[in-house]
């Protein structure tokens, strides 16, 4: 009986020790992901492709009227965007992208790098290969990915209510078929049209905080039946019926 008790006690100790070792080994380490894995903590002064990948995913948190540069340089603007991202998800808000922040990003993305609530397919209802636009197919697809991460931030700010896209990337032929502007951001993979709920005014008003410097909505010609969000070199907002 005594020997059996000792064996049970040793087993409990070994299991507990293994669990402790596992905890120590993984504490402070971000878990690998099928899309992209960060291998270090990032903070102001960091630079490189890992910073650029981070910037894509926090581009929806630049602050009112701002746009975060995707340049691979971790400066004050990136730190501020990371802080807002952390605040949005209840993390320790220090502007440093360590394991906690990286793991939250892993939770929010699929293995093709798109955020969990958006897909390449809904960003391109024009063709299957992203060709025929104003930029290369790869550039259009990359632009669309950045826009999806901004949409993910917008969606979260609106109470995690679904956002319904009706149009994204367009080739010149697709753009012409729907009467799009000759220089439409849709041709670059940077334009998004949203329909349904939330209301168009809720969408365009909140979008001002999430990296979109092209915002068109109710009251702007041809935009009473949808909200248009995009990115361009300078700001152009117009949704008079929504106070913008």
Q: What do you see in this structure?
A:
This is Peptidase M15. Residues 47-104 form the Peptidoglycan binding-like domain. Pfam families: Peptidase_M15_3, PG_binding_1. Residues 117-229 form the Peptidase M15A C-terminal domain. The protein is an alpha+beta fold. It contains eight helices and five strands. It folds into two domains: 40-108, Orthogonal Bundle (Muramoyl-pentapeptide Carboxypeptidase, domain 1), CATH 1.10.101.10; 117-243, 2-Layer Sandwich (Muramoyl-pentapeptide Carboxypeptidase, domain 2), CATH 3.30.1380.10. It has a five-stranded mixed beta sheet with strand order 1-2-4-3-5, covered by helices on one side.
What is the secondary structure topology, with strand pairs?
Blueprint: H1 2-26, H2 49-58, H3 76-88, H4 99-108, H5 120-123, H6 137-157, E1 164-167, H7 172-177, E2 192-195, H8 200-207, E3 214-216, E4 227-230, E5 236-238
Signal peptide: 1-32
Pfam families: Peptidase_M15_3, PG_binding_1
Keywords: Signal
Question: Which tags fit this structure?
Answer:
single chain, 244 residues, alpha+beta, Muramoyl-pentapeptide Carboxypeptidase, domain 1, Muramoyl-pentapeptide Carboxypeptidase, domain 2, 2 domains, 5-stranded mixed sheet, 8 helices, 7% strand, globular, disordered N terminus
């Amino acid at each position: 009986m005594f020997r059996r008790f000792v064996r049970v006690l040793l087993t409990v100790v070994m299991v507990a020790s293994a669990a402790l070792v596992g905890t120590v080994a993984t504490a402070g380490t971000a878990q690998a992901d099928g899309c992209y894995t960060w291998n270090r903590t990032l903070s102001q002064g960091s630079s490189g492709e890992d910073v650029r990948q981070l910037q894509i995913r926090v581009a929806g948190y630049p602050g009112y009227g701002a746009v975060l540069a995707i340049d691979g340089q971790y400066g004050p603007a990136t730190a501020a965007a990371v802080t807002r991202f952390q605040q949005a998800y209840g993390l320790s808000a220090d502007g440093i992208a360590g394991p906690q922040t990286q793991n939250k990003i892993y939770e929010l993305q699929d293995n093709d790098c798109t955020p969990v609530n958006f897909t390449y397919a809904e960003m391109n209802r024009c063709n299957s290969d992203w060709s025929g636009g104003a930029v290369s197919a790869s550039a259009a697809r990359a632009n669309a990915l950045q826009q999806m991460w901004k949409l993910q931030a917008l969606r979260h700010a609106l109470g995690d209510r679904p956002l319904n896209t009706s149009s994204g990337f367009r080739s010149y032929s697709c753009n012409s078929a729907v009467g799009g502007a000759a220089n439409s951001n849709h041709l670059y993979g940077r334009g998004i049209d949203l329909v349904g709920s939330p209301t168009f005014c809720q969408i365009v008003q909140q979008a001002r905080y999430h990296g979109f410097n092209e915002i068109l909505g109710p009251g702007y010609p041809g935009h009473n039946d949808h909200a248009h969000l995009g990115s361009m070199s300078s700001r152009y907002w117009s949704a008079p019926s929504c106070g913008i």
